[in-house]
Amino acid sequence: MKPPTQKQAKAAALAMHAAIVKHNTPGCEAAAILRTPCSVGARQCAHIVPKHANLAVSVDPLNGWALCPGHHLAVDADPTKWLQMVTATCGTGIVLEWRATVDRSLDEGLTVEQRPVSKLRWWRHQIKALNDYANEYRVAVPVPVHIRRWLDTGPTQ
């Protein structure tokens, strides 16, 4: 089975990550913490450490809040609200660990099992890891058919 391209692997991993984050929380996580009403619209996956900051933690199942669109915009735009959410949900310790991972990856590059890898191999590894997580915790995640077939063949790349 042909392995996914980098673009396909990245899109699949981000969609899987979003499904896992939204599965772990039944409603908007910010409503009670920020004490403001939710906006209309489907919940979104808001990264705690932004995915544009670095790939190393972009699809960590814990690096995300399920937020309504309004709270997603508010938390992204206001560092005080972001810190309030961090303090109330995951704590600053995990964020510091993620930042250390990001700093390491900026110095050493992306790694899988402490070995340097290309972005392509890193994204493919993330698909496998998220798939394992979803199976272990029984989370339904969207996986395109061609990637599901690749996963089912026991990918080596």
What is the 3D shape? globular
Distance separating the two termini: 11 Å
Mean pLDDT, nearest integer? 93
**SSE string, helix = H, strand = E?**
HHEEHHHEEHH
Radius of gyration: 16 Å
> Major sheet: size, sense and barrel closure?
2 strands, antiparallel
Please count the helical segments. 7
| Strand-residue proportion | 5-15%
Overall structural class, as computed from helix and strand content, comes to: mainly alpha
What multimeric state do the chains show? Answer: single chain
Query: How is the largest sheet built, in terms of strand order?
Result: 1-2
Q: What ranges have pLDDT less than 50 throughout 5 or more consecutive residues?
A: none
Give the % helix: 40-55%
Number of domains: 1
Number of strands: 4
Kindly describe this structure.
The protein has 157 residues and is mainly alpha-helical. It has one domain. 55% of the residues lie in helices and 6% in strands. The chain has seven helices and four strands. The strands form two sheets. The protein has a two-stranded antiparallel ribbon. A two-stranded antiparallel sheet has the order 3-4. The termini are close together. 29% of the residues are buried.
Q: Short summary of the structure?
A:
The protein has 157 residues and is mainly α. The protein has helices at 6-23, 30-34, 69-77, 79-88, 92-108, 119-137, 145-152; strands at residues 44-46, 65-67, 111-112, 115-116.
Task: Please write out the topology.
Blueprint lengths: L5 H18 L6 H5 L9 E3 L18 E3 L1 H9 L1 H10 L3 H17 L2 E2 L2 E2 L2 H19 L7 H8 L5
Helix pairs in contact: 1-6, 3-4
